[in-house]
Amino acid sequence: MERTQIQLTKEQLKKLKELSLNRNESMASLIRNAIDQFLLSGKHDISVLYRKAKSVVGKYKTTKPDISVDHDRYLSEDFKS
């Protein structure tokens, strides 16, 4: 294994320490497992994200012809009600 150094926020470190104690597992092991899950998820691969975004293009219909231009206004109106 290679040694590396990372910086965490106080809250991240606190939660990581708690999890480490609760699971009786080292913080290093928890971090390695989290990185493995992240790498396996494909969320770091921009091409995967583009494919997911493209899969919804044209999937939904609207009666509002300006929805792509005024989407913020429509969202704020919906959240008010």
Which labels suit this protein?
single chain; 81 residues; mainly alpha; Arc Repressor Mutant; 4 helices; 0% strand
Q: In terms of structural class, how would the helical and strand content be classed?
A: mainly alpha
CATH level-3 fold name of the domain at 8-59: Arc Repressor Mutant
Largest sheet: none
In the CATH scheme, the class of the domain at 8-59 would be: Mainly Alpha
Q: Gyration radius, to the nearest Å?
A: 21 Å
Strand content: under 5%
Architecture of the domain at 8-59 in CATH? Answer: Orthogonal Bundle
Terminal CA distance: 55 Å
Proportion of helical residues: 55-70%
Write down the secondary-structure element order: HHHH
Which overall shape is indicated by the principal axes computed on the Cα atoms?
A: elongated
Assembly state (oligomeric): single chain
